[in-house]
């Protein structure tokens, strides 16, 4: 019995040993199998990032986004410009390379295959706010090192990298205190009760500076200042497919209404004006004065050098009977080129190319001299215009904005208009330049690159230089039986009192040849239970809706006043609007795309009225409304939104 029991125990022990060995084998097998499986489902990606001269660019953020899962992977280049991603899940990726001062590069369709090492190299192009290290002087290197030292002293929480002696801020960080860019505060339009405020009055705005300035921030991998985002200028950066006028008026009016994309319980009203296009042979002769800032602050590559290229483009577009004068200002103002026939293009170009930057900024004196020159060469019934190019940093001489405004208004009454081009960054004075252009019956543009200069001076030249209607005002009367409340999107600094509409002494916006103007209203329908702040009940009168209003199918009546370029008395146009209950998917490309731009602007401003808007919905709306895009501006907008979406996702993870 003892022997049998002993044998039984030995057999049990051997069974356990065999089972243990089998278990270990199974575990090892599974581990090996899983390891092979994991290895088969991951791979690596590497490459180098160089500039156009073949110099390695260190500290560059490289982002790989899986297009299927939308998962983002990040790394940075080392001192040799090399980057590496290890153990990336297999799939198709978008690879982005982003660094301030260079154009952002995106490589799509990068196939990360199992157990393979993918290689994607990048070559970055300078985009204006950096210069090539090969072109940096010893003095410039010293200045940049000092600026970098100052940044670290004044804002120790900000980190950056130094490349070729030029400091580049890390994205999403607070800008250092020595950045003196200025933007006027914007207080967004709010919802107003139609019963208490039936009239909404504003001046048109065809400025586009805000959009190109916002683009500059985004291309530098930063979100713009909230007050740099003027939504009406973003919307009006793009032209829309409105019909040419068929009446004696110099523009047509188009209206449309449908569901509001970011709040389906609201409605969105789209208003479009189309300026009459002018044939080249009918263009009036131009007396142009180029007023160019050549002060020391303009010495950066994205200022005076870009300015010179931009004005060369304009000179090439002028007719032989047009005339050009050039006034410059730095520590003092001076006449560089007296009034010269545009047929002498080489003479004008040579004068532009000889300009160099230095000295302080006597902007007021320069403007005075420019108007004097324009007045001396005035062309009756012609296009008499000063084109001021500057970063807006007036700091010597007659620099009071109010004093400059009065002078500009006086010359405006004499038929000399003012167009302003903004350049550069760091000390950019946006609010001042917008105000001066507004008072000078001109346009305000921001030139961030040569392609924007081409848009302003080549593609849109007729609208930029030739005014077909001035003091254009709109006044909408809302039917309170159809509209509970309304909100004008943007145009905050273009609002007018209701009494100003019929007052021909009140200045308003100008419309150029072929230009389009677009405005959007968000409305809360009558009967909505949504609460809107109003005023207390009045003691001496009652606000009641007329019974006729309920019988009227009109949602509003649009009234428009304008003057001819040399006129003093305005003309009136009346245009009613009915809600035909068109669904959003059936609206025009104009409606969809303008709504997408408005929603994007509200996201950048983090507006309290953005509703359900997000980057994905903006992209869908913009792509659906892209329509005709001859110059590719709408495609560029879609890329900006896509990039902002990526930046926002990174920022969210960093926080």
Descriptive report:
The chain has 655 residues and is α+β, with helices and mostly antiparallel strands. It folds into 5 domains: 1-32; 42-124, Immunoglobulin-like (Sandwich), CATH 2.60.40; 133-169, no CATH class; 192-278 and 468-535 and 548-654, no CATH class; 286-449, von Willebrand factor, type A domain (Rossmann fold, 3-Layer(aba) Sandwich). β18 (383-390), α8 and β19 form a beta-alpha-beta unit. α5 runs antiparallel to α6, α5 packs parallel to α10 and α14 runs antiparallel to α15 (633-654). The longest helix is centred in the first third of the chain and has 39 residues, at 2-40. The termini are far apart.
Main traits of this protein?
655 residues; alpha+beta; Immunoglobulin-like; 5 domains; six-stranded mixed beta sheet; five-stranded antiparallel beta sheet; 15 helices; disordered N terminus
> What's the total count of β strands?
26
As residue ranges, the low-confidence spans are 1-6, 23-39, 128-178, 395-399
> Average pLDDT, to the nearest integer?
83
Which of globular, elongated, flat, extended, rod-shaped describes the shape?
globular
Overall SS class = alpha+beta
Instruction: Name the beta content range.
Output: 25-35%
Number of domains: 5
Largest sheet: 6 strands, mixed
Into which percent range does the helicity of residues fall? 25-40%
- Helical region count? 15
Radius of gyration: 31 Å
- What is the spatial order of strands in the main beta sheet? 17-16-15-18-19-20
Distance between the termini: 75 Å
Set out the fold topology.
Elements: H1 2-40, E1 42-51, E2 61-66, E3 72-76, E4 82-89, E5 91-98, E6 105-112, E7 117-119, E8 122-124, H2 138-154, E9 160-163, E10 166-169, E11 192-193, E12 199-203, H3 209-219, H4 231-235, E13 251-260, E14 263-275, E15 286-293, H5 304-317, E16 323-329, E17 333-341, H6 345-353, H7 363-376, E18 383-390, H8 401-413, E19 416-422, H9 430-439, E20 444-446, H10 450-459, H11 461-465, E21 467-478, E22 483-488, E23 509-512, E24 516-525, H12 547-551, E25 554-563, E26 571-578, H13 589-605, H14 615-624, H15 633-654
Parallel strand pairs: 1-7, 1-8, 15-16, 15-18, 18-19, 19-20
Antiparallel strand pairs: 1-4, 2-3, 2-5, 5-6, 9-10, 11-22, 12-21, 13-14, 14-24, 16-17, 21-23, 21-25, 22-24, 25-26
Helix pairs in contact: 5-6, 5-10, 8-9, 13-14, 14-15
